[in-house]
Write a structure and sequence with these properties.
Elements (H helix, E strand, L loop, with lengths): L6 E12 L2 E13 L4 E5 L6 H8 L7 E6 L2 E2 L5 H9 L1 E4 L13 H12 L6 H7 L15 H14 L4 E5 L7 H16 L3 E6 L10 E6 L2 E6 L5 E2 L12 H7 L4 E6 L2 E6 L4
Parallel strand pairs: 3-8, 3-9, 6-7, 7-8
Antiparallel strand pairs: 1-2, 1-4, 4-5, 9-10, 10-11, 12-13
Helix pairs in contact: 3-4, 3-5, 5-6
């Protein structure tokens, strides 16, 4: 198995200038993405998911903070090193048609993609069958529906086994069954040692991820780990933003804090 690189964002801040003033897209985000995992960023539109992907994928630079790959800060890379790293990162965008050969059939598109990347280790028809597209093998990609194009773009990317795959909303137009087929391919890619990062606002995919990072208003509010627990982050001002599920369970905005030998316990505040 190959081993993909580890990516890390540390205290990442991104501020955009707008006509109405400055917009803070990321406000001190710490996150790590690892080979062998499908890390899913979830959250509503405007939560900062796509901006975080752009930082990780070296398509944009942060206002503050650091992005590192395998321990090397992106700011320290030479232009050539940065270009080499970007070539190891494969993208599946929200508009997959832009990455497809419109004049080729679905099957020929897969074959051409594998040939161009030297990844001719699978039968194109079998690749299409993995995501339910075999009946459309002779259909030009430009005539596929949006959801069909999404499935084709993901499986075409996965079959090349890139070091890093970044996908922005790859299941936006898919039903539960098709989403499951897509995530099967992403998990198979991770099993080959790739680092896979997906952004979506679709909470249905939570159960399909290896690890879930939940974002809201430009900050990381929770991280779902393997045992189903939720992990919150203590920021530089020693503040903790509880995940929405934890707030709902408490049922109040005021809590009592009890320090025990086993940890820290939060309970609904007793009446004064």
């Amino acid at each position: 198995m190959s081993s993909g690189p580890v990516g890390r964002c540390t205290d990442l801040v991104k501020v955009f200038d707008a006509d109405t003033g400055s917009v803070v897209a990321l406000a001190g985000v710490d996150v790590e993405v690892r080979p062998g995992e499908v890390t899913v960023l979830i959250g509503p539109s405007g939560s900062g998911k796509s901006t975080l992907l752009a930082m990780l994928g070296l398509r944009d630079t942060p206002t503050a903070g650091a992005v590192t790959w395998d321990g090397r800060p992106a700011d320290d890379l030479t232009r050539r090193e940065r270009a080499d790293l970007r070539r190891r990162i494969l993208w599946v965008t929200q508009r997959p048609a832009a990455a497809l050969f419109p004049h080729l059939s679905a099957e020929r598109h897969v074959a051409q993609t594998m040939r161009a990347t030297g990844a001719e280790h699978d039968d194109p028809a079998e690749v299409l069958d993995r995501v339910g597209l075999l009946p459309l093998r002779s259909t030009p990609t430009r005539f596929l529906s949006g959801g069909e194009q999404q499935r084709l773009a993901v499986v075409s990317a996965a079959v090349t086994r890139p070091d890093v795959l970044i996908a922005d909303e790859p299941t936006a137009e898919l039903d539960d069954h098709s989403s499951g087929l897509v995530f099967d391919q992403l998990h198979a890619l991770a099993e080959h040692g790739s680092t896979v990062v997906v952004a979506t606002h679709d909470a249905r995919v939570r159960s399909l991820a290896t690890r879930v990072v939940e974002m809201r208003d430009g900050i990381l509010v929770a991280e779902g780990v393997g045992d189903g627990a939720l992990r919150a982050r203590i920021d530089s001002r020693r503040r903790v933003e509880l995940p929405p599920a934890a707030v709902a369970a408490l049922g109040t905005e005021h809590v009592d804090i009890t320090v025990t030998e086993h940890g820290v316990l939060l309970t609904p505040a007793r009446p004064a």
